[in-house]
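Extended Data, panel c. Modelled sequence:
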Amino acid sequence: MNPDNANHLSLVAVIAELAALRYTPAGMPALDLRLEHQSRVQEAGQDRQVVANVKAVAFGVLAERLAQQAIGSQWKFQGFLASPRQGKSLVFHVQEFGA
């Protein structure tokens, strides 16, 4: 396993919620959003319907671009997973998105 790619997530999802664009103490644009994913997969020989709601965050120019997208629009998101400092849940850090 390549350690540089050990934490990489690629997800096709729709934008379910967009918070207001905010700025970090350093002045960097930041955007909190919620993504919804639906698909069918095979698991243990059975067809399974998968539904996932994912908390996500984006920073910089990417946050500004995402803030302009429509709720309900579908994209392919790429990034990594991390736990916030004071939290136990995972947050998807979006590093790029596109059609």
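The beta strands are 9-18, 22-23, 29-43, 46-59, 74-82, 91-98. This feature is highlighted in the accompanying rendering.
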